Amino acid sequence: MRKVDAIEFSRRIFTVVDNIGKVVVGKTQVIELLLTALLAGGHVLLEDVPGVGKTLMAKALARSLNLEFRRIQFTPDLLPADVLGVNIYSQKTGEFVFNPGPIMTNILLADEINRATPRTQSSLLEAMEERQFTVDGVTRRLKEPFLVLATQNPVEMEGTFPLPEAQLDRFLMRLRLGYPELEEERSILHRFGAGNPLEEIKPVLNAEDILAMREQAKGVNVDESVEYYMLTVIRETRNHPAVKLGASPRASLLLYKCAKAFAAIKGRDYVIPDDIKHLAVPVLSHRLLLSYESLLRDYKPEDVITDILEKTAVPVE
After folding, report:
1. How large is the greatest C-alpha to C-alpha distance in the chain, in angstroms?
2. CB 241 within 8 A of CB 289
3. DSSP of 79-144
4. DSSP 3-state helix, strand, coil percentages of the chain (rounded to 5)?
5. Domain AAA+ ATPase: where (predicted)?
6. CA 127 to CA 149: how far, in whole Å?
7. Same-domain status, 225 and 208
């Protein structure tokens, strides 16, 4: 895809948003953030109760972009080889042949990721960070674009293995869909009561388009004052009295990339402070480790970030 102006860039993205919206009702903001993560080259943790459309959203995204989609149901007996693949001995050739796992795809849905053991969870780390994986000493590159969409139920924790901080940090964003509004849920009844709208979804962009748009988003301008504003917000997460462990330099870089991608989606070739405000909670909240006293008071990472944003001076021209 040739380079397009900011307005055309935004128009193309919103054809995808509208396309997914034919299936996933009333979640425009979440879809925008999902596409922001894809353009920024990151991964997303969808944390919500069952039945709100997490899997449906992942499938609709893959179909809208004509990308290969695979799903893994994470369970306690799942092994790393079930994710990455395994070498199988061929009696016909007398050699080992690699049988790739579901990780060889564009969009990987890791369903209920916290139900797998830490060993299996960690098998995704190299793939998520370096876009490659290693089996029996042989390293293989993954397809691009590559997006891991992991889901977990925040309520039912029995029989789960909570993701460690190192793995949570690999996710660019943590998103929640939430329950639909009354009229939105009524629309769901009408759409799915008469059939499956997912089967009617047609591609509106492809992998080459997404990779070209990802490169274009990197060229979005970030003024020095906005950079300092973003870094001040990050640094305040390390100094806040409720926080035991604040956001890392990796978080700064990821928020920076996200802000560029989000600005491009909104039809701008420059980042504004409101972009930082809009992205701060989904990008930073899962990276904060609160003190024991704060947890006892039912204080949440989202509360910390909101408090910091309210107290941090916004740059003005």
Report:
1. 71
2. no
3. -HHHHHEEEEEETTTTEEEEEE-TTSSSEEEEETGGGS-HHHHHTTHHHHHHSEEEETTEEEEPPS
4. 50, 15, 35
5. 40-181
6. 13
7. no
**ω before 145 within 30° of 0 (cis)?**
yes
- The residue among 129, 117, 93, 107 whose CA lies nearest residue 61 is 107
**φ, ψ (nearest 5 deg) of residue 147:** -135, 125
- Give residue-wise pLDDT tens across range 199-237: 889 999 999 999 999 999 999 999 999 999 999 999 999
**pLDDT, tens digit (0-9, with 9 covering 90-100), for 47-97:** 888 888 899 999 999 999 999 999 999 999 999 999 999 999 888 888 888
End-to-end distance of the chain based on CA atoms, in angstroms? 35
Does 1 score more than 80 pLDDT?
no
How far apart CA 187 and CA 23 sit, in angstroms, is 10
Same domain, 253 and 296: yes
Task: Tell me how far CA of residue 171 lies from CA of 7, 68, 262, 278, in angstroms.
Answer: 29, 20, 17, 17
User: Could you tell me the sign of the dihedral formed by the alpha carbons of 226, 257, 65, 125, in that order?
Assistant: negative
> Helix (H, G, I), strand (E, B), or coil: what is residue 35?
helix
For residue 239, give its domain range: 219-311
174 CB neighbour count, 10 Å cutoff:
21
Q: Which of 182, 212, 242 is the last residue of a domain?
A: 212
Amino acid present at 105:
T
Radius of gyration of the chain (CA): 20
